[in-house]
Write a structure and sequence with these properties.
elongated, five-stranded antiparallel sheet, signal, 639 residues, mainly beta
């Protein structure tokens, strides 16, 4: 049987099943819309595509749980009424329960006289299509269907794969939804989603940020986001003209993951389970993505062909639903090391262990490399990561051991405020030590220590590099693989703040596997958040003030014709101090263990034990050790 005849037979079977079921009855029982594939704008086909060698440009492996009476309609709209455009055809493969797959079935069928038997479009599409058109806007006249597939499904668990195929010339696809009363249990791995071409000049926002939605079902979110918009805004991006991003996914059994990261700095990490990513057993697994870019009609793509930047501002995010995660501290003797999350990037075809990046991807760290700069979740968990170039396999992991950095300023550690705006600081970073058994853990050597200063109220997020930050690199840069990690201390760093205020010096060590030393913490809802480790730098150069007094009570009386007090008379001085920033530490005889900006009036007994003229003086000092102008009052004591 020729390939063409086989396609025709599959089309006829699909058409027969659709004709045997009343379409209105199907819609009446429909309950949900499952997102299957995004729209793909009209573009030139791959040079490898032909009728005998069709090229797949979209594939969605769904796991459905279906009731006894099944509704299942493929549509371009969530309501199940939209016509479907696929140039050239849409295949369906189904396995019921644990049975062998059946298909593929061409569910588009013969649509009009003289059309290719695989066509999933109308003559209007052939006449009107223009490179760059979005088929969703023309589906009513370009499309066919909706396409009923309920006859291919059975009550219970169904493994369903919908595949968009191209046989040459041009390709495109409307959005694909499955309008069904079956319940989505997730996806089973092996999916492929094609994005839209990115022009080298004036790229539309829709091409700079592209979402690859493998599952949008409740509690089963699985989405990869590629975002070049920041690099474009900052004018650091280089786009190969017409680069077409494609994301494929693979399911990883968590029990197999330790073997993939053995003998690396991620050896004690686990891959993070994605609820919607299902193993053959039906249990949730981990998600391994591969990102490649095809240029124009080239038949193959690589990560190195994706847009690149001169800065680390190209974003890749893994958004998913998953279980709660823990980050236990590591205790090694008297040392304690914190841990974080990671989003690992490895080369295409990575099969575990140390690897080598494509030289064209310009990566400076070892492979696999940790790109993660922020993490939130669970509850729509997001692993936010930045790079300058994709290459090309990605997976979310944790916990990841981190360097431990301490900051030493040139003022006493117990002094919370200082009265100068320039200080010197040294940063000392220790590599993590992970006691055995540790799956061959090897700490990556240090690349450098980065620090910056900001007002406490303006602490920057960790998501992107901060232009004003300073990085002190290890002399010689990252060494050859296998070089032991060592303690590193920076030379004294001069830090100057522009004005008085409460500042944070934020800092992090970065190792040669890309792991940044970030502070991961849980908020009140037990969701993980990310921020920098910080050291306080509070500056107050303004002296405190005595705002009233000292005043003596009672007032002096006439004694022998002069105002004064008797020897031994009880006299009290009342006075009040203030400091607008660091707070009053000492006001007269009153000391404050917690410096106060506006302490209440203080009182001190004045000495009247000896006759003569005396002076009662009040001194004021703030928490930064600034001394304010003193205030005094003279009084006389008579026998």
């Amino acid at each position: 049987m020729t390939a063409k005849l086989e396609i025709v037979n599959r089309s006829l079977r699909a058409a027969f099943i659709a004709a045997c079921v009343g379409f209105p009855a199907l819609l009446a029982s429909a309950q949900t819309a499952i997102t299957v594939l995004p729209s793909v704008n009209v573009r030139s086909s791959s040079s490898a595509a032909s009728p005998s060698t069709p090229v797949t440009y979209g594939s969605a492996p769904l796991v459905l749980s279906c009731p006894a009476s099944i509704t299942a309609v493929v549509s371009s709209t969530p309501n199940g009424l939209g016509k479907v455009v696929v140039d050239d055809y849409l295949d369906l493969t189904v396995s019921e329960g644990t049975s062998a797959p059946e298909g593929p079935f061409d569910i588009c069928g013969v649509t009009h006289p003289g059309a290719l038997p695989t066509a999933c479009f109308t003559p209007a599409y052939q006449k009107e299509r223009v490179i760059g058109n979005d088929p969703d806007s023309k589906a009513a006249t370009w499309g066919v269907g909706p396409l009923d597939i309920h006859g291919h499904l059975a009550p219970g668990i169904n493994h369903v794969t919908l595949t968009a195929n191209d046989i040459g010339s041009v390709l495109s696809s409307s959005s694909i939804y499955l309008f069904t009363n079956c319940t989505s249990e997730g996806v089973s791995g092996g999916g492929q989603i094609s994005g839209n071409p990115i022009p080298a000049t004036n790229p539309p926002a829709s091409t700079l940020t592209q979402n690859f939605n493998f599952s949008l079902s409740d509690d089963h979110l699985i989405k990869q986001v590629l975002d070049f918009s920041v690099a474009d805004q900052q004018k650091t991006i280089t786009i190969p003209d017409g680069a077409i991003p494609t994301v494929t996914d693979h399911v990883i059994d968590p029990t197999d993951f330790p073997a993939l990261v053995a003998n690396t700095s991620f050896a004690t990490s686990q891959c993070l389970v994605h609820f919607g990513e299902l193993l053959p057993s039906g249990q949730a697994g981990c998600k391994l993505y591969t990102v490649t870019c095809q240029i124009g009609s080239e038949s193959t793509g690589t990560g190195a062909q994706c847009p690149s930047s001169t800065m680390r501002n190209i974003v890749i995010e893994d958004a998913f639903d998953g279980p709660q995660f823990t980050l236990p501290d590591i205790h090694a003797g008297r040392a304690t090391f914190h841990q974080g999350f990671g989003y690992l990037m490895a080369n295409e075809g990575w099969s575990g262990g140390p690897c080598t990046f494509d030289p064209n991807s310009d990566q400076i760290y070892s492979c696999p490399e940790n790109l993660l700069t922020a993490f939130t979740g669970p509850g729509a968990t997001t692993a936010h990561s930045n790079t300058n170039h994709y290459n090309s396999t990605f997976i979310s992991v944790g916990p990841v051991p981190e360097y431990a950095t301490v900051v030493n300023f040139d003022f006493p550690k117990d002094q919370s405020w200082i009265n100068r705006r320039t200080v010197n600081a040294t940063f000392l970073a220790r590599p993590p030590i992970v006691p055995a058994p540790n799956n061959g853990f090897v700490a990556a050597p240090l690349s450098g220590i980065t620090y910056g200063v900001s007002l406490e109220s303006e602490l920057p997020p960790t998501t992107f590099p901060i232009p004003t930050d300073i990085t002190v690199g290890v002399p010689g840069g990252c060494p050859e693989p296998g070089t032991p990690a060592e303690i590193f201390q920076t030379p004294p760093q001069t830090i100057t703040v522009p004005s008085d205020g409460e500042y944070f010096v934020h800092y992090f060590a970065t190792d040669c596997a890309g792991t940044e030393e970030l502070f991961f913490y849980q908020d009140q809802s037990a969701s993980w958040q990310t921020k920098f480790y910080t050291a306080r730098l509070d500056v107050d150069t303004v002296a405190p003030e005595i705002i009233s007094g000292p005043e003596l009570s009672p007032a002096p009386t006439l004694i022998h014709g002069e105002l004064g007090y008797h020897v031994g008379q009880q006299v009290t001085a009342t006075y009040q101090c203030a400091d607008g920033l660091s707070g009053v530490a000492k006001c007269g005889t009153k000391s404050y263990s917690s410096p106060t900006k506006n302490p209440p009036p203080a009182q001190t007994l004045v000495s009247t034990s000896t006759k003569g003229t005396h002076t009662f003086k009040v001194h004021v000092v703030d928490a930064a050790q600034n001394q304010g102008a003193s205030a005094s009052v003279d009084y006389s004591v008579f026998p």
